[in-house]
Amino acid sequence: MDAMAQFLPLILIFAIMYLLLIRPQQKKMKAHQAMVEALRRGDQVVTQGGLIGKVSKVKDDGEIEVEIASGVKVRVVKSTIAQVLSKTEPAEG
């Protein structure tokens, strides 16, 4: 019984760390993953490097092609997209 009383504060510290640090980080990662998976042609995005451009092609191998200026296209790893500024409407039909 005495040993359990000594470990109780340690267990509480781990529980608080999980609730305040680990769990919110996991939620943020899931939200980012969902945002990256929902990328499609025409979306305006910001990369982690600060480049703003429009998605011109979504590739299968974890890359997208982003047009950062008229006629200037760069290949970007999907996971480095920091934010989607504007979404395009899905094409009907």
From TrEMBL:
<keyword id="KW-0472">Membrane</keyword>
<comment type="subunit">
    <text>Part of the SecDF-YidC-YajC translocase complex. The SecDF-YidC-YajC translocase forms a supercomplex with SecYEG, called the holo-translocon (HTL).</text>
</comment>
<protein>
    <recommendedName>
        <fullName>Sec translocon accessory complex subunit YajC</fullName>
    </recommendedName>
</protein>
<feature type="transmembrane region" description="Helical">
    <location>
        <begin position="6"/>
        <end position="22"/>
    </location>
</feature>
<keyword id="KW-0653">Protein transport</keyword>
<comment type="function">
    <text>The SecYEG-SecDF-YajC-YidC holo-translocon (HTL) protein secretase/insertase is a supercomplex required for protein secretion, insertion of proteins into membranes, and assembly of membrane protein complexes. While the SecYEG complex is essential for assembly of a number of proteins and complexes, the SecDF-YajC-YidC subcomplex facilitates these functions.</text>
</comment>
<comment type="similarity">
    <text>Belongs to the YajC family.</text>
</comment>
<keyword id="KW-0812">Transmembrane</keyword>
<keyword id="KW-1133">Transmembrane helix</keyword>
<dbReference type="GO" id="GO:0015031">
    <property type="term" value="P:protein transport"/>
</dbReference>
<keyword id="KW-0811">Translocation</keyword>
<keyword id="KW-0813">Transport</keyword>
<keyword id="KW-1003">Cell membrane</keyword>
<dbReference type="Pfam" id="PF02699">
    <property type="entry name" value="YajC"/>
</dbReference>
<dbReference type="InterPro" id="IPR003849">
    <property type="entry name" value="Preprotein_translocase_YajC"/>
</dbReference>
<dbReference type="GO" id="GO:0005886">
    <property type="term" value="C:plasma membrane"/>
</dbReference>
